[in-house]
Amino acid sequence: MVDHTAQSDLSSAAAKNGIPAVRQRAREGKVRWTWPLVVCFIRLPLLLLGAALTYAFFALRGNSDAYAMTFAFSNFYLTFVNANTLFLLYRLCQDEGIRLVELIGVGREQLLQDVLLGLLWFFVLYIPFALGVMLVPLLVYDSGVFEQFQSIFAPPLDTTTTNLPLWLAWWGVVVFPLINAPTEELNYRGYAQQ
């Protein structure tokens, strides 16, 4: 049996953040051009702040691998960047009179189109990107690419003097992926593009 209430809630949410609804909120003075612009660029300064604070934390503790530790802990401080981004989006949605979930804009009538577009963009963008990420190191390091692969993306970490905590690995596998992708989608596609 089809739940028509849930279906109408999804369509209602999609309509509340559609182009006509956003234009109406702009006419009412609830949406200004400055906040979508700020939302596009706010994550970079927050990221740099998180990296600087992480570096300072390890450097002040006398860690000789402070630079490498900054990269190792990036999933951790990026989660706080995501939390601040979500809070900003929540406040902006409150000011506009919509809910955060309405930025998603899911509607049954567009579900197939959205899935097909997602697959198209996967093939158009991700596969060439992944090939580039694999081919450039292969060209640079030739047959030794797999021995050098870890050092390509992060500075080498002296594992004889530095032990990374197990919770950091769990954070990077469980917490970070669950908050990062939805935050970026809400931020860039849900709020900034509308």
Descriptive notes:
Helix 4 (43-60) packs antiparallel against helix 6 and helix 7 (111-141) crosses helix 8. The chain is mainly alpha-helical and 194 residues long. The protein has helices at 4-16, 19-27, 34-41, 43-60, 66-72, 74-96, 111-141, 145-153, 166-192. The chain has nine helices and no strands. It has a domain at 4-109 and 166-192. The chain is globular and about 55 Å long.
The count of β-strands is 0
- Please bin the fraction of helical residues: over 70%
The outline comes out as globular
Radius of gyration: 21 Å
Helix/strand/pairing category: mainly alpha
Strand content: under 5%
The separation of the N and C termini measures 34 Å
Please write the string of helix (H) and strand (E) elements.
HHHHHHHHH
- Overall average residue pLDDT: 80
Uncertain parts = 1-7
Largest sheet: none
Total helical elements: 9
